């Protein structure tokens, strides 16, 4: 059971948006596949527990991965008094994605994704998930030597921005006790309760 502010101890979020981990990678993979025209199975997360077999040198495909998440200096916390109460913590992340295109059409596919990301209709599903496009412009050649043969690889950096919202079970304050100490030294106790 998750702690609340009434039980004490560390608090874990009761919900988080937007999607993280595999659902976030699925969203990115679908975006790259949709704009590039590659089959979804040929747009793969870069680091997998059991990597699939590498396609042939004549096959066009893409490997992508989140290489960096840079958060703002601080988060904003707002108490939401509805129901028993919660705290909403909002932090903005800048997410760097490296998309590597392989195959004879690698340059064209990288350029197609780079330019297609700026078409509002192409980015709509990602925008609805609370993600904005910051930058996508540099295409780099980074061919790999595999089995004594160069494999064409073209890298594309994509920079996204998203607001991460986490909701914590911080309950409403129902009563409080304290005291005012006056300049004269008189102590004036008080109690406040919810009515």
UniProtKB/TrEMBL annotation:
It comes from the Bacteria. InterPro entries: Gp12-like (IPR057087). Residues 1-23 are annotated as: Disordered. Residues 25-180 form the Phage neck terminator protein gp12-like domain. Residues 1-19 have a biased composition (Polar residues). This is Phage neck terminator protein gp12-like domain-containing protein. It comes from Bosea vaviloviae.
